[in-house]
Amino acid sequence: METAEGRPAVAATLRALSAALGGPAGLWVKESSARNLRHRDFLAPRAALRAAFSGGQVPPDVIAAVTSASGPGALRVRGCQQTGAGLAVQLRRPEAFRQLLGPPPATQPLPAARPGQEPGQEAVVLHCPALRRPAALAPRHLRPVLLADHLAQLLRAQGVGVHLVPAVSEQGSLEVLRQLRVEWPCGGAASPDAVSALKQALSRCPYAAACEPGAASLPEDVVCKVHLKSFIQQQGLAGYDPNLDVLLVTEGKLRSLAELQQAVLQCTAEGQGSRCSVVHVVSCEEEFQQQQMDLLWRILDPGAHTASQKHLVCGPVKVTNPSFPIGADQYFQLRKRQMYDASVMKYGELAHDEAWTEVIDTLTVAAIRFELLSTAHRSQLTLDLEASSISTKGTKSGAFVMYNCARLATLFDTYQRAVEQGTYPPLPPASTLNFSCLREEGEWLLLFNYLLPFPEVLQQAAQLPAPSKGLRITANTEAVCKFLIQLSMDFSSYYNRVHILGEPFPHLFDQMFARLQLLGAVRDVFHRALATLHLPPLSQI
């Protein structure tokens, strides 16, 4: 059965339950709290049942159909009963453990198209205007930069081709990117021929004025002025700032557009889709200027790639307790010093060797990335520069996530050493393990809330809306950070409560092996999720 059905998934299980109940797909709720999971795994709430059935009473034949619900990727139901809260479903949990932790099916179904993605749309150009700054980056600029970097990793994990623009040449910005482990193209410049072609398009543009060389009415660095408001009105475009009017076009603006054009051409030349989707990842302070550039590109290079431009806008970043204006590099160094001090308080004086330097650097990057990415990108973000805001103990921090990842590494290192010393036998093949030993509520919590939905979390975090009317799009890029924080909290609670490597008695091995298999899968989820943040797992902390 598993061979035909493939890997279980939340969405597939919800579809099977909805089909059996004969109601809309959104009728069922997946439970996640430990308290509710003691009694049920899915619930069709009482209010929804009243809307679907006379008096809210589910007929016995429908309950029987739900109990036998099945389908590709659907987890099997153990029992279904109507309660005061609604129609409660509990799954066959040992079978679910076996499906998710046992050997993979011999064949896997083809992945479904990502919701919100048009057929054939396989490439995205992510443009981050903050990296065009000739001056040093400030902490507020890091938010769109880290968001674009994270989104690029999420899209690539879904098989989407990604091109990052602009190429960075400013040395201070390159150093900040290196410190934060942001993989971004460097050097390079727009082709002079591409800039010349845009100038020629300007000379023929009906919305441009004073394009003659050396026109007396324009400042020296301005090539032309373009009437954006006229273009908006004639094209009937919606979603643009009503204050957009006349744009003074400079050589720098044309070079920026030429670089975007080259990225789109590279997408199509590499066969990554008949059309590239262009997403501008901007701070709210840059949004007006990027709308100007959006319109200028539409005017000079009409086509599907310019007509489908989208703007992913980050909310403001408020810095509290600054004794002076702080740059991105100073922000990194401040957090690094605070992380070192917090680690000394936790572990005592640290060795000044290469290994601990790498640990502190990784913890610092994790702290900054979680600080800037775990809030929805539309919302205001507050950065507290006080040392008390950085801790190795707080459960909401990147350091806490890395700490728990390191605990897993230590567990498996300890087990491996014990195997080499003959204390424990090696972990048997997954097909031979007895997953009915996994009865502790924390074990089902880890499987049902994290291992099961993880692929869908990655998929949903990478979703970009299909082109539609309007400019702004919303991405759920905070989802991975929130997922990792919650996983760390539940893993830590379980790990503190349950002794994994017990006494080396053969009658205890079945449970130990099943738990090691579960935690090995949890470790893999940590590693894959951290990879989307360019964070390597730590083997010590």
Automatic annotation (TrEMBL):
Entries under Gene3D superfamilies matching the protein: Isoleucyl-tRNA Synthetase, Domain 1
Gene Ontology molecular function terms on file: arginine-tRNA ligase activity; ATP binding; tRNA binding
Originating species: Anas zonorhyncha
Pfam families cross-referenced by the UniProt entry: DALR_1 (PF05746)
Protein known as: DALR anticodon binding domain containing 3
Signal sequence, start to end: none
GO biological process terms on file: arginyl-tRNA aminoacylation; tRNA C3-cytosine methylation
Family annotation (SUPFAM superfamilies): Anticodon-binding domain of a subclass of class I aminoacyl-tRNA synthetases
Residues in DALR anticodon binding domain copies: 401-541
Matching InterPro entries: DALR_anticod-bd, DALRD3, tRNAsynth_Ia_anticodon-bd
